[in-house]
């Protein structure tokens, strides 16, 4: 009679890691392409008003934002507690709006300059006088397409 012996296990076979760097670089490339960076750090507090009839903007690269609100608590010691304008990452005055719009237009392609939209993101408690001054400055800068940013109003049941 023959004896049957179990094969001695020589350990588990090693996992092939030859394709691991390819996978890591493919994931890295995917996240680099699909991630967008935050463009503006808000220095003013903006609590948008609520509205019932809203529409989304199609091409956000054509939108130039103007933020209006009370400076954040960390900036109130320097700028006070009155509503201020923020253009890009810095505080500004109404007189700076024309040059800001001109710079934004110059950064766009010539075919898209006529489609540029200026979006005003204002705090709901902001006085209407500041918004009127901003609109007058936009009129002087020939930025006539204006959008007001708002949050969708929650339905009360």
UniProtKB/TrEMBL annotation:
Protein name: Biopolymer transporter ExbD
Membrane disposition: Single-pass membrane protein; Single-pass type II membrane protein
Domain of life: Bacteria
Record key words, sorted: Cell membrane, Membrane, Protein transport, Transmembrane, Transmembrane helix, Transport
Subcellular location: Cell membrane
Major subcellular site: membrane
InterPro entries linked: ExbD
Source organism of this protein record: Carboxylicivirga linearis
